[in-house]
Inverse folding.
């Protein structure tokens, strides 16, 4: 199983099995990285420009894995392991139910990679590019992944504590949505 730079498990053998489309991919199949950040990698941008900015994976015999700037990060709406949905309460500083979990670190961008060589990743070879790949996990699944041999693709139900925290937030959310007119408030005060 792959590990973080600090040696804790990430819950997968191959992060690419759980990765989605590239964050830089436009709806038209073009590479936004080459369009918006040509100065960061002029050679890559020139190659994409020559191909009318088509994504590297647009070539039939290539995949996202072949692109040096591939990145797949989570939308954070639901835990990929247990299915717990995110419930955020506006204007409240409580800890979120879901957290971003790195399956793979790209280009030394993660704080844990301080001191690692550019592009280094645990388990990456010189031929295999390093990419940032993240998924959403609830706090409870996140802890289980890092503290044991739990896997991302385990078929589990939400932890009872996670379910209770979500329902508490949903109740608070519903209470905030309640609307009473001034007349209703006045009439209830006179009762």
């Amino acid at each position: 199983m792959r590990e973080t730079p600090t040696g804790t498990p990430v819950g997968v053998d191959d992060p690419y099995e759980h990765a989605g489309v590239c964050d830089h991919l436009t709806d038209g199949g073009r590479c936004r990285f080459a369009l918006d950040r040509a100065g960061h990698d002029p050679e890559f941008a020139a190659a994409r420009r020559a191909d009318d900015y088509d994504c590297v994976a647009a070539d039939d015999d290539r995949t996202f894995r072949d692109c040096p700037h591939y990145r797949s990060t989570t939308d954070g709406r639901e835990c990929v392991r247990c299915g717990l949905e995110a419930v955020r309460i506006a204007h409240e500083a409580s800890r979120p139910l879901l957290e971003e979990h790195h399956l793979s670190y790209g280009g030394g961008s993660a704080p844990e990679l301080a001191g690692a060589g550019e592009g280094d990743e645990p388990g990456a070879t010189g031929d295999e590019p390093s990419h940032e790949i993240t998924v959403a996990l609830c706090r409870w699944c996140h802890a289980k992944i890092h503290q044991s041999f739990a896997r991302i693709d385990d078929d589990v139900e939400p932890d009872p504590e996670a379910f209770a925290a979500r329902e508490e937030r949903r109740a608070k959310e519903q209470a905030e949505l309640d609307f009473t007119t001034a007349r209703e408030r006045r009439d209830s005060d006179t009762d």
